[in-house]
Amino acid sequence: MDFLKGLDLELLPKKKYRVIKYVLDHPEEIISMNTSDLAKKLKVDPVTIIKACQGIGLEGFHDLKKRLKEKLMRTDRKSSFSQVLSEFAVSTSTDEAIRNALSRDLEMLSRTIEKVSFEKIMLACQAIIGSRQTYIIGLGYIGNVANYLQSLLRSHLPQTHAITEYNGMLFDYMGHFGKGDVVLAIGFDQCQNQTIKALKKAKEKGATTIALTDSEYSPLCAYSRHELFVHPAPNYFLSPLIGAFSICNAIKHCIVEMTKPQSTRQSAAYKKLVEEENVYYN
C-alpha cells in the first residue's frame, strides 16, 4: 500500500501490528467491516483499531477503509470467482496463459516456504505418529487435500481418516473424537463453518488439534494447538491448494524420517506388492 511506504511495521506494538497485518492480508474483507466488527474478530478493544490506524499516519479506521477502497479500485481486484472468469476472458496466447499459471503456483510455493514453521510441522508429525486415530477434515473442494494427505499417510499410519462430507460422515467421526486422537482441519480464506465447529468439538473432547490454513487470524487457530500456514492468496481461487498439497508432501517426508527404519520396511513391502500385482505398465 502506498500509504505504508517507509514505515517499519515491526516497530508497532504487538496488538497494533496484529491489526495492520490482518488489514494487509484481507483488504477486501476490511472495506465491508466497521470498527466493532474488526475488534470483535481480532479480540481487541475498538480503541486499539483506531490507534493502530493512527500509528501508521492515518486519521482512523474510516480513513484506512477509504484508502483501501481507492487502492482496490486502482488495481481492479475482484472476488475469487470473478478473478478466474476475468482471466479467462482476457485474450492471451496459450503459451502465456500456461506460463502465468505456473508462475503463480511457483510464487505460492516460494512464499509458503517462507511462512510455514518447520518446527510446527515436526510437532504436528510427532502428534500424528503417536495418535490413536488421525482425522483429516477437508470439506467441499478442500476435500481433495484431505484425501491426498490420507493417501500419503495410510501406508505408514493406517489409523488415518479423511473426512470430506458435510453431514453424516462428519457427525459420525465427531462422535469418536477423544483423547489420544489428532484432528487436522483444513480451511482457507472463507472457512467452512462445519470445519470450525468440528475442530472446536475436537479440542473440547481432548484431541490434539492442528490447523492447516492461510492466516494467523483464521477462526481455526482459536481451537488448534499447532498451526501450519500457507501463503495467503485471496485473489486466486485455487492458489492456497498448491501450498496445502506441498505441506502434505512435507508431512509425509517428515513422518517417514521420524519412523525409520519401520517406514522404509513398509515402503519396500509396498513396492514389492506393486511389482507382484503388475500395477504399472512395463
Question: Can you describe what's shown?
Answer:
There is one protein chain. The protein is an alpha/beta fold. The protein folds into two domains: 8-75, Winged helix-like DNA-binding domain superfamily/Winged helix DNA-binding domain (Arc Repressor Mutant, subunit A, Orthogonal Bundle); 113-276, 3-Layer(aba) Sandwich (Rossmann fold). The chain is built from 13 helices and five strands. The protein has helices at residues 14-25, 27-30, 35-42, 46-55, 61-75, 80-89, 94-115, 118-129, 143-153, 168-174, 193-204, 239-258, 262-276, and strands at residues 134-137, 160-163, 182-186, 208-213, 226-229. Strands 2-1-3-4-5 form a five-stranded parallel sheet, sandwiched between helices. Strand 1, helix 9 (143-153) and strand 2 form a beta-alpha-beta unit. The chain is globular.
Secondary structure topology:
Layout: H1 14-25, H2 27-30, H3 35-42, H4 46-55, H5 61-75, H6 80-89, H7 94-115, H8 118-129, E1 134-137, H9 143-153, E2 160-163, H10 168-174, E3 182-186, H11 193-204, E4 208-213, E5 226-229, H12 239-258, H13 262-276
Parallel strand pairs: 1-2, 1-3, 3-4, 4-5
Helix pairs in contact: 1-4, 3-4, 7-12, 8-12, 9-12
CATH superfamily name of the largest domain?
Glucose-6-phosphate isomerase like protein, domain 1
Beta-strand content bin: 5-15%
What does the oligomeric state look like here?
Answer: single chain
Count of structural domains:
2
Biggest sheet descriptor: 5 strands, parallel
Based on secondary structure, the structural category is alpha/beta
Average pLDDT over all residues: 85
Distance between the termini: 56 Å
CATH topology of the largest domain: Rossmann fold
Radius of gyration over all CA atoms, rounded? 21 Å
Shape: globular
Assigned CATH architecture of the largest domain: 3-Layer(aba) Sandwich
Q: Could you spell the SSE succession in H and E letters?
A: HHHHHHHHEHEHEHEEHH
Largest beta sheet: what is the strand line-up? Answer: 2-1-3-4-5
Name of the CATH first level of the largest domain = Alpha Beta
Q: In which range does the helix fraction lie?
A: 55-70%
Uncertain stretches = 76-81
Number of helices: 13
Total number of strands: 5
